[in-house]
Specification:
Layout lengths: L3 E14 L2 H4 L14 H10 L3 E2 L3 E5 L2 H6 L1 H6 L11 H4 L3 E5 L2 E5 L6 E12 L2 E14 L1 H10 L8 E6 L5 E7 L1 H16 L8 E15 L18 H12 L5 H8 L9 E4 L5 E5 L3 E5 L1 H4 L8 H27 L6 H20 L3 H10 L4
Parallel strand pairs: 10-13
Antiparallel strand pairs: 1-7, 1-10, 2-3, 3-4, 4-6, 5-8, 6-7, 8-9, 11-12, 12-13
Helix pairs in contact: 6-8, 11-12
Length: 373
């Protein structure tokens, strides 16, 4: 029996690097000067107040998030003298929620629908635009593959946007592709936070995390387990997993070439969790997470909330890892004292992450992605 997916959660993010304001005064708008000053950043973050701009409400991570969200709870202890985190050294972001934009998902199918929550993480080194997409209904592997495959397409109107654009234009259910939504939100951030005409290189164009949160049809099996006594996932099912993550069909020959690590084919990282649960990762593209034991339809109750928390933790880890590692690489030749000091902090952040995290996927990703840092 073929797979059917009743719930799929997709997180997509980018990362824009903004370095100029760190060393040149006057390149942030009034109200956001604290972004480039260590002392002001610490005091603003600890105050915890919401900062209102034209298009966003920006707020430091709240006490509950810092103490109960798995990633932030342990990440903050990298710089934690006297039981208080040092937010500048951690480059802990502010969470920006749009106030002048409403984004909706257009699945193009009567079989499933979707919702989307947009968020922007703003930090001294730039910002990351995030979309959390929740798909619900009855999805075939082909439908899910095609939806994921359409996300990068500039001409695929998977969203509708309403609200005020950065240039003051009022939009009403304007069809948009994912790249257009990212651009729409990024232009609002640039207009609210920074001086005009600054260039923010896109260091991560798009990274996605696909979590298969509820499914039926196929039996639970292991992805290439070294244990011969366990039921193994057949080749056709493994093709489905890679096709969903890559957003395009994967032939048997392509699958076997990838799994045997043949040159010229997509390389990937396989992470095994408890039992048959696993994830596959393409380093500069995305990750598919399949917690089969708790996402099988009929589990009482389906642990969607737990899986959403896992995906959120993974997203936050990946956003921070990409942002910090890009900053560290791009500032290798900088001599400005502020940048030199910040590089030391960020190097420590990256080095200490594996000691603070318990996620098998985060640990294996870190070991492979940052091995040449």
């Amino acid at each position: 029996m073929a797979y059917e997916f009743q719930a799929v959660d997709i997180s997509v993010f980018d990362y824009h690097e903004m370095l100029a304001p760190l060393t040149a005064p006057g390149l942030t708008k009034p109200g956001f000067d604290f972004l480039v000053d260590e002392t002001l950043y610490e005091s603003t973050y600890k105050a915890g107040q919401t900062i209102h701009s034209t298009h966003f409400d920006a707020q430091p991570l709240k006490w509950r998030t810092l103490n109960f969200h798995h990633f932030w709870k342990y990440y903050q202890t990298i710089w934690y003298p006297g039981g208080q985190p040092e937010f500048w050294k951690l480059q802990m972001p502010l969470v920006c929620k749009p106030t002048q934009a409403r984004i909706e998902v257009v699945t193009g199918s009567a079989d499933f629908n979707g919702k989307v929550v947009p968020t922007v993480f703003l930090s001294p080194n730039g910002w990351s635009t995030n979309l959390d997409i929740m798909l619900r209904g009855k999805m075939t592997p082909g439908q899910l593959r095609d939806f994921v495959g359409s996300l990068p397409d500039q001409k695929a109107p998977l969203f509708r946007a309403s609200g005020q654009s950065a240039n003051g234009q009022n939009l009403n259910n304007e069809p948009m592709s994912l790249p257009q939504v990212f651009r729409f939100l990024s232009e609002q951030i640039k207009r609210d936070v920074y001086a005009p005409n600054l260039v923010a290189p896109v260091r991560v164009k798009r990274y996605l995390i696909v979590t298969l949160s509820e499914f039926s049809g196929e039996e639970i099996r292991h992805y290439l387990s070294p244990r011969t006594d366990l039921k193994q996932m057949p080749e056709a099912s493994r093709q489905v997993m890679h096709a969903i993550l890559g957003g395009k069909p994967v032939s048997l020959a392509q699958l076997l070439a990838m799994e045997s690590k043949q040159p010229g084919h997509q390389s990937f990282l396989l992470t095994r969790f408890n039992g048959p649960d696993f994830a596959i990762t393409y380093f500069d593209y995305g990750t598919l997470v399949f917690m089969q034991q708790t996402s099988v339809s009929g589990f009482h109750p389906p642990r969607r909330k737990a899986m959403q928390c896992h995906s959120s933790n993974l997203r936050n880890y990946l956003v921070m890892t990409h942002a910090l590692s890009w900053f560290y690489r791009d500032t290798a030749k900088e001599t400005d004292p502020k940048i030199v000091a910040l590089r030391k902090y960020i190097k420590a952040d990256l080095e200490q992450m594996p000691n603070k995290l318990t996620s098998p996927l985060a640990l294996t990703f870190h070991a492979n992605y940052l091995k040449n840092l």
